[in-house]
Design goal:
This protein is of the alpha+beta class. The chain has 12 helices and 6 strands. Belongs to the ATP12 family.
Amino acid sequence: MFRRVFQLRNSFGNVISVCKSCPSHQYSKCLSKYSTASTERKRFYQDVSISQGDDGLYEINLDRRKLKTPGGKLFTVPNEALAIAVATEWDAQRGTLKFYTMHLTTLCNTALDNPTQRNKEQMINSALKFLETDTICYRVEDPPGLVDLQKNEWDPVLHWIENRYNVTIGSSSSILGPEIPQATKETFRQHLNSYSLWSLTGLEFVISQLKSILLSLGMVDRYLTVEQAVLLSRLEEEYQISHWGNVEWAHDYDMYELRARTAAGALFIQLSSENLTVKHKIMQD
């Protein structure tokens, strides 16, 4: 059933361009407060531009005013590529600013203000907790059709992850999930430790959307597209829809909303890790 569905585009960009208008989603109480504190506001600027400060960081300018975070810090990003993406997000707003559509801005604000006041080790621990209850590790025992679907669609991803990182994970139908070996946890801990705080912010956001660190890593490693990862995270729901039908517009809306958030998070991880300067003038008329 899903093999045909999974013949999808292989880039993050196509997904984002389709779904950039979808609303944001709460992945934690604090981030939700950041992203929806002011849901809408009249646009108060004409032009958007970027500039590089003396410290090498990039800033976003709304007319002559420099953008600041909700915490009052100067809004700065580590490279030009991410600055362009955020500036494009602001420039795309029309008469009314819809902050709940500005996922990259929200993620940058979170990375800069760190409202939960967590360090890198705490963020890694939070991500690793998903190994115990990962979406693709928990399997149902009934109905047979869903059992087969989980095996056919999730097992290839699980096997790829185990080979890619040389770990043992497994699956379980127990409500407690599989027992993850300590060596596996340490391998993933070392891998996540190579991420910057910014990239971890994006990864944690993606994990919270998919309820799966394994699908998230598969997507970041380009084994899965955004659309594939989202469909795999919703496998049981899609199975139920195939049998009982779709609620008018609601399921599609949820799908596009989740795809938009996941795509934005994936792009944020990629851009926050980007070291090359993008030599491109933006916001040209």
